[in-house]
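ok here's the first one, seq then struct tokens
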Amino acid sequence: MADAPALELAADLVAKARAAGADAADVMAVDSVSLSLAWRLGNLEKLERSEGGDVGLRVFIGKRQAIVSSSDRSPRALAELVERAVAMARTVPEDPFCGLADPAELAGELPALDICDPAEPTAASLIEAVRRAEDAARAVPGVTNSEGAEAGWGRSLVAIAASNGLANGYAVSHASLSASVLAGDGATGMERDYDYSSAVYLSDLRSPEDIGQGAGRRAVARLNARKVKTCQVPLIYDPRVARGLVSHFAGAVNGASIARGTSFLKDRLDQPVFRPGVTVVDDPHRRRGLRSRPCDGEGVATAKRDVVAEGVLTTWFLDLRSARQLGLRSTGHAARGTSAPPSPSCSNLYLAAGAVTPHELYEDVAQGFYVTELFGQGINGLTGDYSRGAAGFWIENGELAYPVHEVTVAGNLKEMFLALTPANDLEFRYGIDSPTVRVDGMTVAGR
């Protein structure tokens, strides 16, 4: 729960905005602390601790809205904040879809999601973690250099109040640890790879040794990579890159894109977009979830949803504004900061696990490509056209044969989703997650 002073500050600003002439107002106050450090080749390269606070005021006059934010919470600065916000709202163009939530839409008692670690790590403990991670990575045979290891921790207290009766607050935390190394040399070729872990609780991170060894093994496995001839083959996406497909899907069902008509799925609601049996879930209430939230950025209640059920698209991600544009109700997906209006965003989004093992996905593949890394952002959100640089391993007769680099994979996301088969190895690691997936009929462009 956010501390009482932050909620009092937010409620007081709302009252002052109303007194200054606003028809309605809301306030978000965020207080945060973070610690980050970097370690390379046995030496500490960065150690930073920061503390800060921001407050954002949004006011409405009729169908006009304005937002002003500040990190200065002195009485004089807050008075100026109110004055500027109200003056701006009188002059901006009207937005027929802006406005606060109806009180009936607001979340009541917030669910307990265990999304804030009460323990704050010391700098010494994080230094020990990055040292161990890099030492483990450099100890992998074939590793010849290091880009270092990094660790981070942060905690934020969030308070939201509005003139519609909203008064909620909560605390969130985040911890991460990563390592990146190089293998090989200038004569035989060098390859880089990495591994990392993120969690709400520091204690839920993978061990430094596991992360370091993972980074080292990945880099060494990529040595002596080849190009392949241009062909059309099945692609197997490693979970680390398969989650990118889930992210592309999230962008395509974002209510703002749907309202603008700029999504390749804009006409596909209540129609098949994946194979029968495929499920995509958005779960804001997942315990210790990296993207869990007890309510959305407009105070609207959140709930677990099957965004895709049996392959059929069931809903969009909607905030209040996009819902009004589409003649629908908010789905509780508004996200916001202190200096911008809310916009739709998913929470803990994942492609549900399938029934087969990762190896069973490709044991019948005579020629195929197992993708472990993607580069570039060649995605057309309007048409679904997809083209990314890629690296990974060539598949021959159902087995990984040799590493591959400097190729491009291409297709169309509408067709890719309908051709997608998930494996059974789903793990919740990133906030947007996927098991290993297979997509048939992809083009690999090489030599």
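and now the second one, same deal
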Amino acid sequence: MSDLKSNIAVALALSPAVHAATKADSPIVDLQGAGSATVVINTGAIAGAGDYTISLRHGDAADLTGDAAATGADLIGTFPATLAADTSYAVGYRGNKRYVRAVITKNSGTSIAAGATIVKGSLALRGAV
């Protein structure tokens, strides 16, 4: 069996917690040195008939000033229209921006238990992260 761990790096993209509001200040992840990236989202309970969405912001500035939503050609797959309880999602990023951030948005409801990780891959193609 091949060794996957030596060829990836993981970064916290959204702290696992119960989120009762939009979380737009999650950690900014630097993709330098990675040839590919995937956002992995895990959800738990959703309270109060909650409707939450997840998106990925990307940009060239380290503080993500001037960032934009990663959409269409920047993504491999799509984020769900609404997050479901007790579910895992994975969406690939193929955009050409250096920095990304996961944003969870509260549309309605009370809270959602959720967290996200960005898996950086193809490290051998671009050098160590």
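notes on #2: Helices lie at 123-126. The longest helix spans residues 123-126.
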